[in-house]
Amino acid sequence: MTAIATVDLNRWRAGGEQAAAVLREVDAGMQRAGFLLVRGHGVPQGLPAALRAAARRFFALPEDVKQRYAVSVGGRGWIGPGLEANGYAEGTETPPDLKETFAVGADTRTGDPAVDDVWFLKNTWPQEISELRDLFTTYTDAMRTLSDELLALFAAALELPHNPFEGFTTRPTWTCNINWHPPLTHVGPPEPGQFRIGPHTDFGTVTVPDREPGAGGLQVFTEDGGWEDAPYDPVALTMNIGDLLAHWSGQRWPAGRHRVLPPQDSAPDEDLVSLIYFYELDHDARVTPLPPPIGRIGGLLPVVSAEFLRTRLDAITLG
């Protein structure tokens, strides 16, 4: 048994009692863990595997080649090892996460440099892996469509009279990271308290990972069960909500706390590549928490999306 519910979007789209049952499953599952497994997601078959293969070719390039695309956390390009420690987001000092990242993001610029130079940076595409750009763009287009549908699903699950997010995602901020977690034979034994990704919650509304199962893979935390291995379904996508959506729900739904285990002695050659789409809202969207009886906590103050996210991004950046 697992705390993470599996829902099928096709049942919701069908309407009627099937849809009503899905909405009950969503609300119950989100209250337990802030995570779901989602079937019927509509992502083209074979696309994640093709993108993952192209990314592996990028990460296999010599370091001096990857350095041409090097950026800091929050940038667009290659984020090398040793630059990020996600545990800091929840106040836990940890060694750097054992990963490399290639990141892209929203580039729908507003014309205001103060906004664009933070939230709508130009994406960088490695010339050595020519197919990466088209694959990544097709993938992130599919992820945005899915994320908008998930926000509509959440509004329906709380029986709201309309979807409040429709007006908040005209020019949303988002990023998509491809994380490469090298094998133990590459990085050596982890330091005490070191993870492939340290324990944390995400910051925005919806996060959609496409992940590979492994010995040093994803774990999810719940109040009832503690840490447990996240279930894996090859035809489903994992999704979790972040701090911004948890705040909007009046903390009815917890942000999904998770971590990625360090490489394991039992699988020294295991390397994993995860595709992680982080969806947010328009940078200037004002999010007002739902009061009780829907929300659990009354008196929570409204927040502006970009301001809310910035403090959390700064916390995980090392150096």
- Gyration radius (Cα, Å) is 19 Å
> Helical content, roughly?
25-40%
Oligomerization status of the protein chains? single chain
Strand element count: 14
Q: Mean of residue pLDDT?
A: 94
Number of helices: 9
Derived from helix and strand composition plus strand pairing, the structural class reads alpha+beta
Give, in order, the helices and strands.
EHHEHHEEHHEHEEEEEHEEEEH
Distance between the termini: 41 Å
Give the amount of beta strand, in percent.
15-25%
Strands of the biggest beta sheet: in what spatial order?
Answer: 1-2-10-7-12-5-4-3
Q: Give the CA-based shape.
A: globular
**Which stretches are low in confidence, meaning pLDDT under 50 for 5 or more residues running?**
none
Largest sheet features:
8 strands, mixed
Report on the structure:
- The protein has 319 residues and is of the alpha+beta class.
- Helix content is 30%, strand content 22%.
- An eight-stranded mixed sheet has the order 1-2-10-7-12-5-4-3. Strands 6-11-8-9 form a four-stranded antiparallel sheet, with no helix packed on it.
- The longest helix has 26 residues, at 132-157.
- The relative contact order is 0.18.
- The model has no long low-confidence stretch (mean pLDDT 94).
